[in-house]
């Protein structure tokens, strides 16, 4: 079998050389004796010259169209231009409201210096604690945007909230353009980029959620990540001019830095990226020098972000830094790894991989012990439960680029990188829905590349013995055009219906709650409740919180678990003691959590609390044998009907959704 494969490859080499020679001779035959080229070739050269400006114009148009599209959907869904300010702020649900609140704080500060001081010495986000927001959270984008809004002469005709959301919608244009360019670079035709953009737009539900979760960190970061991938794809092109290579490396660095600065999960995305580079470099499918530069850029970018985040320990103790440092050290020790016979190279490769893995574990564990780092332990627990790396890019023969170019399907460095990159992010998408938006957008790129690839169609035609350059050209362009027409026919009516559907924001209970808090509580009041609700409380009222949705801190996770005892089976004395320890003045109970029915038994918040406390869950069904019945009823239910609870809690507000209780002060 092995001999047959090698014979086939050699045979194809011969075919390819012959075809190139015949094509070259045919072109020579078409040259007139006087040296002039026929008009058909002149037209081809003209189209090549026009292709770049035409393709670039289409890319910009589609990017702007996407931006306008998602902005219109957002307006139509909420009637954002007509609702009150408090309703606009409430529409920034969960952690979105928390991030936007820092933009609002910066604008409300008397000066930029005071605003920065307030973020660095924040005592409102977590009660009884002063934390550095710039160190704990990725909010430099809010800082930059607030400063930009102050210095630009736009205050008289553009509200701060519109400046904020239009910036995010504008980044969607950057995102689509970057995907378009990546697909264009891979396939060699901007028709592929057009198809990638079409797929991104028509599969919007699976590619982005920016229109209803605007301030999420991923909506800031993913456009820069797409720019980085486009730049890396261009970097892997052979025979780049030195100036072009330097400018491309600069683009990779800037996009990597901005991506890292705007999302707390940057290190995990770039770790997968580093794994892709490591796998392909070990298989000798990427130029080693360029890969080394990418490792250095990753390290430099994330270390610079660490400095800006006041030497954030979660970044310094990241697996990404340990992995990249290990690779660079292993390369320094183990030189000429790709030289020698096949058996010798396999042995060196095995030793290299083993050395990198061992060094990574040693450096990472050593760093975490020095920093006493436990902030990211919840993420690794999640990944251990959900995600495992599988084998990729396996090949019986490790071929150099010169030999690969002679095969029937040319897997260029850019295509190889994009393939493995997409596969690994697909594995990550299986673990959590949030990562789906990262994977599907790049699937649009790779699918469009495959449909417009000359190599793919050439392989198909050769497999059925129908290959000619003319048929290749027809299929390569005709199939994508038919696909574009089909997509337009299928999705255009639905998109028009979606754009014509008008809704309005309506959440009177939450609006009533926020207005009551602003009017009836002290500005220094401490409020306890669910994470998602308290983010809105901070944004709309400016009151002090006991906990919030930014979960990358061990102490905060423990604090949230304690606050959530309001939904567990605990005595009023215990709940009062817990809340008092955080300086709480008011606690908000939500019926949607207390009587939750959306999730099945065992997945509801109250069930998780019961299990953690060793109590039997409510309802019919099995329980673990070590669980016992609680001595007390569920706090959030009993407080509404048991008069004895008034010794500790006094109800001060109530509507159909929320119940607010004030903690009674005891001497």
UniProtKB/TrEMBL annotation:
Keyword Transmembrane helix belongs to the record: yes
Main localization of the protein described in the UniProt heading: membrane
GO (cellular component) term, any one: nuclear inner membrane
Molecular function in Gene Ontology: mannosyltransferase activity
Coiled-coil region: none
UniProt membrane topology term: Multi-pass membrane protein
Transmembrane annotation, as ranges: 50-71, 184-201, 221-240, 247-265, 271-289, 301-329, 349-367, 409-431, 437-461, 473-492
Subcellular location: Membrane
InterPro entries found in the cross-reference section: Dpy-19/Dpy-19-like
A Pfam family this chain is assigned to: Dpy19
Protein keywords: Glycosyltransferase, Membrane, Transferase, Transmembrane, Transmembrane helix
Family designation: Belongs to the dpy-19 family.
Protein name in the entry: Dpy-19 like C-mannosyltransferase 3
Annotated organism of origin: Pelusios castaneus
